[in-house]
Amino acid sequence: MDFFERQRQAKKKTGVLVFLFCVAVLLISLLNFLIIAVTIPLAGGDWNKGDFDFSTFLDPMLALWVVLGTFVVISLAGLYRKSQLSGGSSIASMMGGRLVNMASTDADEQKLMNVVEEMAIASSVPMPEVYVMDGEKGINAFAAGYTVDDAVIGVTDGCMRRLQRDELQGVIAHEFSHILNQDMRLNFRLIAVVFGLLVLAQLGRLMMRIGFNSSGRRSRSSSNEGGGAALIGIAGLGIMASGGLGILMGNLIKSAVSRQREYLADSSAVQFTRNPEGLSGALKKIGALSSGSRLVSPHADEASHMFFANGMRESWFSITATHPPLLERIQLLEPSFDGDFSEVQFEDRPSPSIEAAASSRGKQAGIPIPGVGDALGQALPPVVMGLAAAGQARVEVGSADAVSGSVGNPTQQHIDFAAALLQSLPKPVREAAREPHDACALMFALLLDPKDGAVQKK
């Protein structure tokens, strides 16, 4: 499946979400109609004679207004929540994330940035911003954003510190799968839908409190007024119950949409890295860690479907779980695993620096670029010159179908090339490429023709 087919599949997923949302609204509206159809006769009837007109059950206009009112309340609440989430960075901030500086000297942050940068180059997508949730000791991660242009990657402190490089690469590849499969926009819509369903329960709770409080104050002076206020409270209780049904259905929608995508993301991560042991190793460490993948953020439930692993405590009501069982995910990657997490080791090895990683993989020979090489005191590798300056080097380009099919379909070869490309760059060039102002100067320098005599004289 190529990148463009994924876009078509994403539209189908959105259609499924809209269908499930409409079903939820109709069921909630039906319950609200029954509540109102009972409350109106009780409020207007004669309690002494027991004379109540329940013809409201057959009133089509009342049913229509209830359905429209329920839909409007839920939709407006969802749109309001969606407007608050301006992009991936808003989710990261909501979860308490800290933006990682590209020039960070922290070894673990360097490791994280290198892995994300390699995946971005291999996937042919812009480098996403990277956030770390410092207060989270569990192992977890997420990808968020409306498009690849505003996407962010977030990881917990436990994920960054406790995972070895190949394990971290498996997790990041999983999150890039969500980016490439167009899952992020769907995640935002899920948040908006569930929030809209939640607001209905809050509205019912407010009505219940107002009604019962007013009933208690007025019952001493007027039994009729007190009874009417009590009916408002009862109606509010019913609407709160329908809102509770909405919350349950919202969680079921999240589960229905999310679970299958997690299987797809796991398989895509293995396809990208060709290393199932890395991803399974990360999942094993989640199982072995006391805090697992749990999150302490108060917004964990709202964004639970966006994470690499279950960020909530295990629930007995597994039908609403947004992620497949941990053991099942591991055994799909490593069928021989018996579920014993006691043998999982947490090695306290220092993270390799950029220079150490570069020396371990080897450096490419550089080509002097007049003006640039002298300014930096180093030579740039052939890949920086697009191989054009190498004279005899040629770039083989496949057919248009092959090129389009490779977009958003990184393989291990792409990742290895991206890693070699980054590690072959001299440190000053690498640092310049990560600063907007210096990157502009670097781009202009790369436009200089090394065969131009005027440039050589400069």
Short description:
With 458 residues, the chain is mostly helical.
| Beta-strand residue percentage | under 5%
- Strand arrangement within the widest β-sheet reads 1-2-4-3
What is the radius of gyration computed over CA atoms, rounded to a whole number of angstroms? 29 Å
Stretches where pLDDT is under 50 for at least 5 consecutive residues are 350-397
Query: What pattern of helices and strands is seen along the backbone?
Result: HHHEHEEEHHHHHHHHHHHHH
**Helical residue percent?**
55-70%
Instruction: Please outline the major beta sheet.
Output: 4 strands, mixed
Question: How many helix segments?
Answer: 17
**Shape call:** elongated
Q: For the record, what CATH class of the largest domain applies? A: Alpha Beta
Number of separate structural domains: 3
Give the distance, in angstroms, between the N- and C-terminal Cα atoms: 50 Å
